[in-house]
Amino acid sequence: MYNLLKGKTGIISGALDKNSIAWKVAEKAHAEGAKFVLTNAPIAMRMGEINALAEATGSQIVPADATSVEELTNLFTQSQEILGGKIDFVLHSIGMSVNIRKKIPYTELNYDYFNKGIDVSAMSLHKMLSVAKKLDAINEWGSVVALTYMAAQRTYPFYTDMADIKAMLESIARSFGYHYGLEKKVRINTVSQSPTKTTAGTGIKGFGDFYDFANAIAPLGNADAESCADYCITLFSDLTRMVTMQNLFHDGGYSSTGVSDDVMHRLGVENNS
Ligand SMILES: NC(=O)c1ccc[n+]([C@@H]2O[C@H](COP(=O)([O-])OP(=O)(O)OC[C@H]3O[C@@H](n4cnc5c(N)ncnc54)[C@H](O)[C@@H]3O)[C@@H](O)[C@H]2O)c1
């Protein structure tokens, strides 16, 4: 451990169970000396697993539906009370698409579900940032990280509406990053993570095959949730204080690789040439 977050405070959303990326971020942030509040949608709390994480990291839990400005206002207000002042970092680790859950093809999307997905998974970042800025709840040089996926840049058919939603999420990070950076020196970045075996990840049709495909392309293999958490910690730390408004790939080199020898071999290309 490096004490990278010693003296820092934050809010970590999205820890549903021990597979969640946010769960690993919370464990690492604790190990690096941070104090933080855990949050999730009230409905996710009922599963109760988050209590174990709160106990292990000495954290309090403040439930908030990330689509509710009122509940987010309560989250940032209460967090400052609990943590004794302004906070230094926020993790947005929230994603949900009813269209994906119901396996509705992209060309036949249900627009009520699409709107819901946008609200939960992208607009929630804007709402969090807007609430935080209004309350002046984040310290100068504070850092906000939201998790995203490369379908924002390239087409992955099974990712359906989440592709468009992640593009919006990344855009909000840039747009808000400008204003928040200029006025309060708060940094906002997105981390574009490899396919990861979590509740949200494995809910996607064909996830298992796709996971193997990405793993066969990336020279380092797929990045797991734990290494994603390590990367998030560096972004919360002062070592990355001039990094903002970026979409940062954390994917073992996948996004820069056209094709790998492994995939060519599996396609039997060597035999044909
Ligand atoms: N798993 C992957 O393959 C993968 C890849 C790239 C990016 N991501 C992103 O990482 C983030 C975290 O997902 P994960 O893979 O850890 O899965 P996860 O299912 O463990 O986490 C998703 C979280 O979103 C929360 N959530 C849903 N609706 C909410 C609401 N209205 N208000 C507040 N919270 C709400 C859920 O309760 C859950 O804790 C998501 O943004 C996801 O899109 C995941």
UniProtKB/TrEMBL annotation:
Pfam families for the chain: adh_short_C2
What positions does the entry give for NAD(+) binding?
A: G14, S20, I21, I94, K166
Among the GO biological process terms of this entry, one is:
fatty acid biosynthetic process
Q: Which reaction is the catalytic activity of this chain? A: a 2,3-saturated acyl-[ACP] + NAD(+) = a (2E)-enoyl-[ACP] + NADH + H(+)
Query: Could you confirm whether the keyword tRNA processing appears in this record?
Result: no
SUPFAM superfamilies under this entry? NAD(P)-binding Rossmann-fold domains (SSF51735)
| Pathway annotation | Lipid metabolism; fatty acid biosynthesis
- Which top-level enzyme class is recorded in the Swiss-Prot or TrEMBL entry? oxidoreductase
User: What EC number(s) has UniProt assigned to this enzyme?
Assistant: 1.3.1.9
Which Gene3D superfamilies does its entry note?
A: NAD(P)-binding Rossmann-like Domain (3.40.50.720)
Query: Which GO MF terms are attached to this record?
Result: enoyl-[acyl-carrier-protein] reductase (NADH) activity
- List the transmembrane segments: none
Q: Which residues form the active site?
A: Y149 (proton acceptor), Y159 (proton acceptor)
The UniProt keyword set, sorted, is: Fatty acid biosynthesis, Fatty acid metabolism, Lipid biosynthesis, Lipid metabolism, NAD, Oxidoreductase
Query: Which family is annotated?
Result: Belongs to the short-chain dehydrogenases/reductases (SDR) family. FabI subfamily.
- PANTHER family xrefs: ENOYL-[ACYL-CARRIER-PROTEIN] REDUCTASE (PTHR43159), ENOYL-[ACYL-CARRIER-PROTEIN] REDUCTASE [NADH], CHLOROPLASTIC (PTHR43159:SF2)
Its protein name is Enoyl-[acyl-carrier-protein] reductase [NADH]
